[in-house]
Specification:
The complex is a heterodimer of chains A (about 650) and B (about 350). Chain A is an alpha/beta fold and about 650 residues long. Chain A contains 23 helices and 25 strands. Chain A starts with a helix and ends with a helix. In chain B, helix 3 runs parallel beside helix 12, helix 4 packs across helix 5 and helix 6 packs antiparallel against helix 11. Classes of the chains: A alpha/beta (about 650), B alpha/beta (about 350).
């Protein structure tokens, strides 16, 4: 079967491009491939492609494959999957549209891009939903086979947009993707419906040709994925290659584009999504602390992938427990932490609400616990597959009583790895639950990641209590579970099985030191302040400011996943001659010690957030600084161009 | 047996406490007592249960530091403070969840859950049934006093219909749970019932429970002398005791009453029925089989008792069947994964994955 397919490959690509052009022999073949193609090759510095289709069209897979090839080619990149919560929304409808946007460039980039240069629309609904984002002059590749009267009506088109002038401002490539796929696969013994399903591979092949992507990664991916189904494998390979060949031979595409590899810092790279990086960070945290990892979790979008991923890594001493509900997930993690494991629970917004009481217990028990909230649109069930930053105040205050919890927020997909280590460091050092706030954009988005050297990762070794810590007036030795380390204010972590340290702890207020139940008013006041002082005193790195010309009067302050869009917006402002400073908070509780000084050194502080001003509220309350908010809750990350405009407005009004 | 189970090392047949370290030192009840003043109301049934547990534990010879009591919220949940072992007094209803995480990650511990009828059957009902279904290695002591004590006297999910309490001045409306029926419905592998005032029976039941592999649920009828005094009097008073109590003994025909005059037989519709032995004939009596794989007969036994009068109330071990515990299986999976990796788990290789490229 495979042999039959192979001749379809363009000869120079048969061996495929291995690694990046320019540093191995394959690059010569890549160049010679261009010579085989009689088309003009246009150099671009960056491209934004959006694949859009029905939920069942395989757009996420198509996007993933294109991303992998792009990463292997050496471009910098950033991705944004955008899909509905329904597994299969009614076919052909607007709510059923699933999209994947990829931004890749020959230089370092910070966002998945504002507006696509190329839209691949597999059906009328995909065109309808995405057309508004498309700048004039963009390329639109439409699958004409799906533009039937019925499908047009379903998508709300009164007439066919390909023919009625709707698309006259765009470079339209009307291609019967479905029927060409079926035609290419007619040699295989398979039904028409099955053949049609390979149309995403045809589209991938075409785009791979158009942007000069290496093909070997996709070919080996398909070989692995369909190893047990030779016919489906051959069909997918054939569709992929037919798409490539079509690009090469059709007159519809006069040019082929090339985006040269980016000049990234030296090192070994891979492409990684936020949820995967977070999962690896948790495995690494287990190795670096020397503790077994125990994940107690209940499936919830968009956090479930962390449960899936960790369940594969038992050989690293990771135990995963799919609990009966969110409360049991965190409860089991806390129980494991009491037993000396690195207890972790993963969830998203509504799940965090359910875990509140147990997190409060962890505050009272003063045990390490890592709580991961992959934020999504709220309130309530909200927008399960869309991103938002609206759980900051829930993380900060969402418990009864004075129950302070440290908060760590990663700024990019790959940063989720390091944020997980930081959360584990704080949890184990200070014996406290820590909230890690990721979000849907970080979770599913991806970027190239320069792999850290394992030997250079921080040492997080943990020491359990082993002996009595208090000498009584009569000379006898006792163990006091709430006697604190004077530096960190952390109490000893005395795990069951340690002789002589038997003790009882609970959610009732405890007497300072002994940990015995105490209803004494003075003691309670003291303990509340002690717990707060412990969190306030956590050592976190200073806030860094990027202010290249040191002339900025306005500072943009962000946290979490807005780092990319804010950074890209600042670059635009600077490119246009403006001065703007950027600072990004990784630690939201406690804030870095220099935060106030940094904020006060600028005339105006602008805080863009994907919520209605939660960090701004904290900054105002804490520092009495009248920060300006810029807020959107559209389920999507900010666009750099729009933010640049906001920044310029603020600058001009200072 | 499924493939997963048959490939697990050490399975089946791992004795319940085999992984918990023992001590050679002689232990007594005194060592299991703490210096904390016991704060239950004078006359509370909890005292008797505490004393029974403290007196029973020494016979196991386990190292004290390897025993953990986990509780929720309620009068009974103060129990851990009085046990000189490790202990966690957690939050309402969640003790089984917390204990599950502890037990699964620490197979060397003997983990006990102390809970009440409100804690385990109302707010914590979900965690209870799932712990039972999974067969986590927990010994659950469910103190059932059929009332909310700590909140001062509201009806509980085991209170009889029509109960007049502070929150139900015209009588409670909802049908009570029978904890034994519920546990059997959740496919618990060990389910027993005993009474706070019957020290001998209570201790025997603890002994059977502790030697069981997986979750053991013991419902303990416990008197709240403040808010529901005398709730179990028919089972306790000498005048009525023998008449209403069915003492289950594995392998024995089920008969009770004065001179064993009454017994349990199978009715035509498959349910169980209490009959006059003289009339029905001894041959028809059901022989109690606690080890029966099918929980149907045990369930039928649990349905004999009348929630209003407590007539025909079985006590003893309803069900005790062998099934690998969740802990063993979870630990075995991790061990198997480590073994398959040959003891090498390379973090650098993990994070690099299959597709990397070098930038020079």
């Amino acid at each position: 079967m495979q042999r039959r397919v192979a001749p379809l490959l363009p000869p120079a690509y048969e061996g495929a491009v291995v690694g990046r052009p320019g540093n191995d022999p394959a690059s010569d073949r890549s160049r010679s491939a261009r010579q085989h193609v009689s088309k003009q090759v246009v150099q671009l510095d960056r491209v934004i492609i959006r694949f859009a289709g029905d939920s069942g069209d395989g757009m996420q897979l198509t996007g993933d494959r294109f991303t992998s090839s792009t990463a292997m080619f050496g471009n910098d990149l950033s991705t944004l999957p955008d899909f509905p919560a329904e597994i299969r929304a009614p076919a052909g409808t607007l709510p059923g549209v699933s999209a994947f946007q990829l931004h890749f460039a020959d230089h370092d980039i910070m966002t998945p891009g504002d507006a696509p240069n190329v839209l691949v629309a597999m059906n009328p609904a995909a065109l309808k939903v995405n057309l508004t984002d498309l700048p004039r002059g963009a390329d639109v590749i439409v699958n004409t086979d799906e533009f039937t009267p019925r499908a047009l009506t379903k998508a709300g088109f009164a007439s066919n947009p390909i023919e009625d002038g709707t698309l006259e401002s765009y470079a339209v490539h009307a291609i019967p993707l479905t029927s060409m796929t079926v035609e290419a696969l007619k040699v295989f013994d398979m039904g028409k419906k099955d053949a049609e399903r390979a149309k995403n591979m045809f589209a991938l092949g075409l785009l791979s040709w158009l942007y000069h992507r290496p093909t070997d990664g996709t070919i080996s991916y398909l070989r692995t994925k369909f190893a047990k189904s030779p016919t489906i494998l051959a069909a997918n390979l054939a569709a992929f290659e037919a798409g490539w060949s079509f690009g090469e031979t059709t007159e519809d595409f006069a040019v082929q584009y090339e985006v040269k590899p980016a000049h990234l810092p030296q090192g070994k790279y891979r492409n990684i999504s936020g949820n995967l990086a977070l999962s690896y960070g948790l495995v690494a945290a287990g190795q670096l602390t020397g503790l077994p990892v125990f994940l107690g979790s209940y499936p919830i979008t968009p956090a479930s992938d962390i449960l899936h991923e960790l369940s594969k890594h038992k050989k690293f001493g990771v135990t995963t427990f799919q609990a009966e509900d969110e409360i049991a997930g965190v409860g089991a993690a806390l129980g494991a932490a009491y037993g000396g494991a690195l207890g972790v629970t993963t969830t998203s917004g509504p799940g965090l609400a359910l875990k509140s009481e147990t997190i409060g217990l962890a505050v009272a028990l003063e045990l390490p616990l890592v709580v991961i909230d992959v934020q999504r649109g709220g309130p309530s069930t909200g927008l399960p597959t869309k991103t938002e930053q609206s759980d900051l105040l829930q993380a900060m205050f969402g418990r009864n009583g004075e129950a302070p919890v440290p908060i760590v927020a990663p700024r990019s997909p790959s940063d989720c790895f390091h944020a997980a280590l930081e959360a584990a460091r704080i949890a184990t050092t200070y014996r406290t639950p820590v909230l890690l706030l990721s979000d849907g954009y970080l979770a599913n988005g991806s970027e190239p990641w320069r792999l850290p050297e394992v030997a250079e990762l921080p040492d997080l070794t943990v020491a359990f209590a082993t002996e009595a810590n208090q000498t009584m007036p009569d000379g006898s030795q006792q163990f006091w579970p709430y006697l604190r380390d004077p530096q960190t204010l952390a109490r000893p972590w005395a795990v069951p099985g340690t002789p002589g340290l038997e003790h009882r702890i609970g959610g009732l207020e405890k007497a300072d030191g002994t940990g015995e139940i105490s209803y004494d008013p003075t003691n309670h006041d003291h303990m509340v302040r002690l717990r707060q002082a412990k969190i306030t005193g956590i050592t976190v790195p200073d806030l860094e400011v990027e202010d290249p010309d040191a002339a900025a009067r306005v500072l943009v302050l962000g946290w979490g996943s807005t780092y990319g869009p804010i950074g890209a917006a600042c670059r635009r402002v600077r490119a246009d001659g403006g001065s703007i400073a950027q600072a990004h908070l990784r630690h939201l509780n406690p804030f870095p010690a220099n935060t106030e000084a940094v904020l006060r050194s600028y005339e105006r502080v602008l805080i863009p957030e994907m919520n209605l001003g939660q960090l701004a509220l904290l900054v105002r309350g804490r520092y009495l600084i009248d920060a300006v908010g810029y807020n959107q809750v559209r389920g999507l990350p900010f666009k750099a161009e729009e933010l640049a405009g906001v920044i310029k407005d603020v600058i001009s009004n200072v | 047996m499924s493939e997963a189970l048959s490939h697990s090392p050490g399975l089946p047949g791992l004795p319940a406490l085999s992984l918990v370290p023992k001590t050679d030192a002689k232990q007594s009840a005194k060592e299991f007592k703490t210096d904390q003043e016991v704060r239950w109301c004078p006359g509370c049934g909890d005292y008797a249960i505490l004393a029974a547990v403290q007196s029973f534990l020494p016979e196991l010879g386990l190292r004290r530091e390897n025993i953990v009591f986990v509780s929720g919220i309620g009068c009974s949940s103060r129990f851990p403070y009085y046990m000189n072992t490790y202990g966690v007094h957690s939050i309402h209803g969640r003790a089984p969840a917390i204990a599950t995480g502890l037990s699964v990650s620490r197979p060397d511990l003997s983990v006990w859950v102390v809970t009440g009828d409100g804690d385990s059957l109302s707010i914590g009902g979900n965690h209870l049934i799932h712990a039972l279904r999974r067969n986590v290695n927990l010994k659950i002591l469910l103190f059932n006093n059929r009332i909310y004590g700590l909140t001062k006297g509201q009806y509980s999910p085991t209170s009889e219909v029509g109960k007049i309490t502070k929150s139900t001045p015209m009588g409670s409306l909802d049908n009570p749970f029978n904890p034994v029926s519920l546990a059997l419905g959740a496919e618990a592998t060990f389910v027993a019932r005993t009474i706070d005032s019957d020290r001998k029976h209570l201790t025997e039941t603890l002994r059977a429970a502790v030697n069981h592999r997986g979750t053991s649920l013991i419902e303990i009828y416990q008197n709240c002398n403040i808010f529901n005094d005398g709730a179990f009097d028919p089972l306790k008073e000498s005048a009525t005791r023998d008449d209403v109590t069915i003492r289950l003994v594995h392998g024995q025909p089920i008969r009770f009453g004065v001179d064993g005059s009454r017994g349990v037989v199978r009715a035509d519709d498959g349910s169980l029925q209490v009959v006059d032995v003289a009339q029905a004939g001894e041959d028809r009596l059901v022989v109690h089989d606690a080890h029966a794989e099918d929980p149907s007969v045990a369930f039928a036994l649990s349905r004999l008792s009348d929630p209003m009068t407590l007539a025909n109330t079985p006590i003893g071990v309803f069900r005790d069947v062998d099934r690998p515990s969740y802990d063993e299986l979870a630990v075995a999976q991790v061990a198997r994964a480590k073994e398959a990796a040959g003891g090498t788990a390379d973090l650098a290789a993990l994070i690099a994955g299959g597709d990397t490229w070098q930038v020079d």
